[in-house]
Design a protein that fits this description.
The complex is a heterodimer of chains A (about 120) and B (about 110).
Chain A lengths: L2 E5 L3 E3 L4 E8 L9 E7 L6 E7 L4 E3 L7 E6 L4 E6 L8 E8 L6 E4 L3 E6 L1
Parallel strand pairs in A: 2-11
Antiparallel strand pairs in A: 1-3, 3-8, 4-5, 4-9, 5-6, 7-8, 9-10, 9-11
Chain B lengths: L3 E4 L2 E4 L5 E7 L4 E2 L4 E2 L1 E6 L6 E5 L3 E2 L7 E6 L2 E6 L8 E7 L6 E2 L3 E5 L1
Parallel strand pairs in B: 2-13
Antiparallel strand pairs in B: 1-3, 3-10, 4-5, 6-7, 6-11, 7-8, 9-10, 11-12, 11-13
The chains are: A mainly beta (about 120), B mainly beta (about 110).
Chain lengths: ~120, ~110
């Protein structure tokens, strides 16, 4: 059974870089069938796709965040990563890692999510 | 970006009654080459991640009860819960995966009347 687990600091200072890791178990992150992504949800609000990565390293970002986002993958350790630079209070959110098929597929597995609060 | 607009924002339905949620996309999400609507529905309960219910607008994910169904094509879609149960209380989101950025509707909160 596939499981995804986010990890990282729950508190980040404004202007610094948010860094999260998603640990994948129960499936190979190198599978050619899937993309691995990050989605966030501000408290009490809706869902925003941040970006996705293919095991080869090809990345796809939301243009609204593209200048600040880096998603990378470590296939040997079955992990992928999110870095979001120059954070502000508006980046406070629950961050989910997730899996979807090819880039244009529904998201079928989600991590439990981790709350990241940006403090001033 | 494709903007997804859901209505209503919330609704209260009696147990056993029908709940209907609408989702409208700012452009068609029907891909002509495969005749599929690139539209999914998710259910999110408090403190939990979203759960995939429906994809290709009307295909039920494994394990989803058949009282939950999706319909529509092009730009107008509907999620229907035919007989609301207590465990259906949640927020429901539509999502288009026709192109990037992948975008979600604002959500519809379903409660028991």
């Amino acid at each position: 059974q596939l499981q995804l687990q986010e990890s990282g600091p729950g508190l980040v200072k404004a202007s610094e870089t948010l860094s999260l890791t998603c640990i994948v178990s129960g499936d190979s992150i190198s599978s050619s069938n899937y993309h691995w992504g990050w989605i966030r949800q501000p408290p009490g609000k809706g869902l925003e796709w941040i970006g996705s990565i293919y095991y080869s390293g090809s990345t796809y970002y939301n243009p609204s965040l593209k200048s600040r986002v880096t998603i990378s993958v470590d296939t040997s350790r079955t992990q992928f990563f999110l870095k979001l630079s120059s954070v502000t209070a508006t980046d406070t959110a629950v961050y989910y890692c997730a899996r979807h098929g090819n880039l244009y597929s529904p998201t079928d597995y989600w991590g439990q999510g981790t709350l990241v609060t940006v403090s001033s | 970006d494709i903007v997804m607009t859901q209505s209503p924002d919330s609704l209260a339905v009696s147990l056993g009654e029908r709940a209907t949620i609408n989702c409208k996309s700012s452009q068609s999400v029907l891909y002509s080459s495969d005749n599929k609507n690139y539209l999914a529905w998710y259910q999110q309960k408090p403190g939990q991640p979203p759960k995939l219910l429906i994809y290709w607008a009307s295909t039920r994910e494994s394990g989803v009860p058949d009282r939950i169904s999706g319909s529509g094509s092009g730009t107008d879609f509907t999620l229907t819960i035919s007989s609301l149960q207590a465990e259906d209380v949640a927020v429901y989101y539509c999502q288009q995966y026709y192109n990037t950025p992948l975008t979600f509707g604002g959500g519809t909160k379903v409660e028991i009347k």
